[in-house]
Amino acid sequence: MTGQPFHEAGAEPLGLAEPSAVIAFEVNGETVTQQVPARLNVADLLRHTLGLTGTHVGCEQGVCGMCTVIVNGQAVKSCLMFAPQLDGCQVQTVESLAGQDSLSPLQQLFADEHALQCGFCTPAFLMTATALATAGRQMTNADIRAELAGVLCRCTGYEFIVTAVERYLAGKGALASD
Ligand code: FES
Ligand code: FES
Question: Is 140 helix (H, G, I), strand (E, B) or coil?
Fold first, then answer.
């Protein structure tokens, strides 16, 4: 075989080193400074770099909603957000909800209303409902169903989830009459 070798062993591939960024953000009230690859998504940053495995991953393409967390007060699908976009943001994950030995009021409502079975979707519903409670809106039953439609549950049939979220929003003064 003649000509130059395509790539010499041990040499850095020209122009192919993955770019990275140093970002600072807040997660569950703690400041994090981290160097992140440009293509890392937020779900993987939370789970694999920070060990916050309560955020689940399903489709990794923005369809199932399993990866929902709160960024600057908005529920977002963290598989669709690149880690460098978190610079300067405030992030809230499901790990922020429970106390040392107790469930949060929202988690307790999910337990009381039997709003989970396998539980894989539950962190995403909890974070969606948490964001709704601080959105400054009066939500009807139809609004709640529309907002929760971004998270897919294969187990419960949704009715108990809607009931738990309705009770939670009622307690927050954010439930409107239909
Ligand atoms: S894992 Fe993010 S939407 Fe499915
Ligand atoms: S409780 Fe199993 S996917 Fe929702």
Answer: coil
Q: Locate tokens 């949060």: which residue?
A: 104
- Whole-number Å distance, alpha carbon 71 to ligand 1 midpoint, is 15
Number of domains in the chain: 2
Give the C-alpha separation, 13 to 29, whole Å: 40
Q: Is 144 in the pocket of ligand 1 (CB under 6 A)?
A: no
Q: Per residue in 165-174, pLDDT tens?
A: 999 999 999 9
Is 85 within 8 Å of 21 (Cβ atoms)?
A: no
pLDDT in tens, 27-37: 999 999 999 99
DSSP notation for 97-121? TS-SSS--HHHHHHHHTT--SS-SS
- Domain final residue pick, 96, 126, 145: 96
Q: Is residue 51 part of a domain?
A: yes
Atom of ligand 2 nearest to the CA of 155: 2
Distance CA(31)–CA(45), nearest Å, equals: 14
Segment (H or E) for 23: strand 20-27
